Amino acid sequence: MDATLTPLQAVLRPERSDILRASSNAVPVKDPGKATAQMSEREVDQLLVERAQRGDKQAFGLLVTKYQRKLGRLLSRLIRDPAEVEDVAQEAFIKAYRALPSFRGESAFYTWLYRIGVNTAKNYLVSQGRRAPTSTEFDSEEAENFDDSDNLRDINTPERLLLTKQIGETVNAAMDALPEELRTAIMLRELEGMAYEEIATVMDCPIGTVRSRIFRAREAISEKLRPLLDTAPDKRW
Predict the structure, then answer these.
(1) What is the CATH number of the domain that holds 215?
(2) Does the pTM of the predicted model rise above 0.85?
(3) DSSP annotation of 206
């Protein structure tokens, strides 16, 4: 698995996603290019946060799209296993969504998200009986200084919004084309946030079968997304 969250949660159609999705009308301005030229990145984030706090899940989906890779790369410094990083990052985004009402904008959104991610990772390590780093070993100030500029783009340009729409349509089509058992497994994992053990119970099958189905579903969706995301064959969505 790739060590980061992916656009899947941010682009699934409304009836399939309760939390993480995005579409081309998430920031409805008459001229997105001009609007973002006058806004700082923090201001754009704050705009999306405020919309998400008012119930606009599409706005939160764009925040996921923007920061999923960066958060995943940071968490990979705490957790080495890519599959575990993916799980912890997804849990962090879900926690952030649920905690949105408490966000007051006193810090940048990513700094706030970063702290949630690090705390989630530390709790995960402790639950696994592994040593969690101290605050001095992994300070939250790194959230602002971590250089991941090659993986961040202005999400509010017309081109970016069009790409987000195309990604969403591609993911939806890929999901529809999946066999029922693969589609059910990936939806329970990515949309409902269920643990593998829970999915195994729901689907009445071994955990190994659940992992295999989710892996195959991700591979199928990844194959459809590669032309849009220009990802290497060894990377998934």
Answers:
(1) 1.10.10.10
(2) no
(3) -
